Amino acid sequence: MVIATGAAQLVFGLASNSLISGNQYIQIGGSADGTTIKVGGDQDILGGGIATNTTVDGGTQNVFGVAIQTTVANGGFQHVHNNAFNTIVNAGGEQNVYIDGSATGSTINAGGIQIDWGFTIITTISGGGQYVFGSASLTTINSGLQAVESGGTASDTTIYGGGQDVYLGGPRSTPPWMAASSRSMAARWSRPRSAMAPSSISTATRR
Questions:
Q1: Spatial separation of the C-alpha atoms in residues 197 and 129, rounded to whole Å
Q2: What's the pTM value of the predicted model, to 2 decimals?
Q3: Over its length of 207 residues, how does the chain's per-residue pLDDT go in tens digits?
Q4: Is the dihedral of CA 88, 89, 91, 93 positive or negative?
Q5: Over the Cα atoms of the chain, what is R_g?
Q6: Which CA distances in Å does 3 have to 44, 76, 141?
Q7: Sign for the pseudo-dihedral over CA of 139, 121, 156, 165
């Protein structure tokens, strides 16, 4: 099934292997499997809807229901307002976990970004970046960066490679360097590391 630009698909049952350049709306009780979302395409998973094995290839997935095993890359976005499981964020992809959302088992590969205003657990960072304004638990850093921003909390982090930066001060909202280009990692790596402060909390183990 091909959903062209300007067209829409409403899913009340099961939709399989759709190619989306327009809009796909997964309704309560509906499910979509194997969807590919291209540039300009949107998949909206409404409350009670489920999407599995989605590839976000330059498009956008909005999660108000449940997303399982999504792969995000090439300028794609996953916006999580409910539950996302086992998301893989590759180069050029971005996972945004909002205050009403949670992400479990995400993998952030080189060139990928996760921005956490809500709750993340069992995240693996392998060359990408995780920016924590909310809460992150049981993160494993193989390479790349976990930045715990002012007001953020990281607990039970294990560091095998890469690094963890914990910052003091500044607003909890999106800072200017992220607003200008949320995918620009260079500015983050050049920022000086500061001591842990009460407004930013981290418990980490370096292996």
A1: 21
A2: 0.84
A3: 999 999 999 999 999 999 999 999 999 999 999 999 999 999 999 999 999 999 999 999 999 999 999 999 999 999 999 999 999 999 999 999 999 999 999 999 999 999 999 999 999 999 999 999 999 999 999 999 999 999 999 999 999 999 999 987 433 334 433 443 343 333 333 333 333 333 456 676 666
A4: positive
A5: 17
A6: 14, 17, 38
A7: positive
